[in-house]
Structures are given as structure tokens and as C-alpha cells.
Design a protein that fits this description.
By secondary structure, the protein is mostly helical. The chain has one domain (3-155). The protein is 51% helix and 11% strand. It has helices spanning 13-18, 36-45, 51-63, 65-92, 97-111, 138-149, 184-203; strands spanning 21-22, 30-31, 114-119, 122-127, 157-159, 169-171. The strands form three sheets. The chain has a two-stranded antiparallel ribbon. Strand 1 and strand 2 (30-31) form a beta hairpin. Helix 2 (36-45) runs antiparallel to helix 3 (51-63) and helix 5 crosses helix 6. The longest helix has 28 residues, at 65-92. The mean pLDDT is 90.
Amino acid sequence: MHEHDLNLDAGALCLEFANTVEWHASDHPDDRLHDYAGLIAWAEGIGLLAAHRADRLREVARAEPEKAGIAFHRATELRETIYRLFASYAEQGVFEEGDLAQLNEGLGETLAHARIVPAAGGFEWGWTEAGADFNQILWPVLRSAADLLASDTLDRVRQCADDRGCGYLFVDTSRNRSRRWCSMESCGNRAKAQRHYRRQKQGK
């Protein structure tokens, strides 16, 4: 699995995961994931899980709902850790040591499943056979967070500038690093309309 092969509007898998909560920076966040089945559906939807693996996890989750619930709770806790780390760094250039420690704890468990595997022309990163491991969806997410934090792309991570608390995180790939919004069709258009209204009002 390579991130560039996935359907990632945010530009990084870890940010895509953080964005499964809409209005993340507001007083009324809207979580799009409600249970482990929703987590599977998200992973399958972006191409992280092949259909047969997703079906296998659904089957096991139905058979062991308590374990699935525990795994879902852990996933959402790590999602919030990832969100806080990148949002704080994007806005202020700082982070909480506790959040980094929690990420590193999850990463330590994750790397136990990482392997170097043969690939065309050489080798690449891969994973152990996941089978029915409920935490397997988190493995590439945590690896993505670690890679992004340690990369020269970190200073391109942005949070949507919408003043209502959109909270959408993304990698700014614009040439002049000028992207400010989750999209021009939503928060960007609203900001544009507000600027137009203020200019019209000032002109009266």
C-alpha cells in the first residue's frame, strides 16, 4: 500500500483519518465514524482495505463485538491525538509532549508488524499478515503520521482558516503555499462572500 495510490483529498493518510470528524475545531464536532463497522467502511472507501479484507474484518467484528468496540475506541483516541498534533503544529508550530508520547506508544506497537518485502526493482515497506487483527487499519495510519512529522512536508500542513471551526487538515501543495481552505466550494466561497459583503458595506 502506498499513500499515493489511495483516495486522499487531504494529501496524507493520517490527515484523512483526522478529518473523519467534521467541524473538528468547533464547539460542535460531527463524527462521521460511529462504530468499528464505520471504520472498516472508511478504510475500504479510500482504498486502504481491499474488499476481501474488509469483509473478513466485518465477519470477525460481528463475532467478537466487544473486541471490535475496544479497537474502535482506541482508534478514535489515536485519531484525536493525531488531530491535536498536526492542528497545533500547523497553527502555532508547537505540540503537546503527551500527544507525541501517545503517538510514539502506538507507533511502537505498529512497527512490530512492519516488514521489508520484495518489490519490483528492489524492496518496500509492508506488513505482516494481518488476518483478523482489529488494529490493522491503524498500522498504516500511524506510519503515515510518523512519516509526515519527520518529513520536510510538515511545514506545508494547514488547517482550514474558516472562522467557524471547520478544522479540516491538509497538505498545501500549491506552488506559492497559499491554500487556506478545505475547498473553495465550501469554506473558501463563504469567506469570499463575506469579503465581498464587507467591501459593499464599506462602500456605502
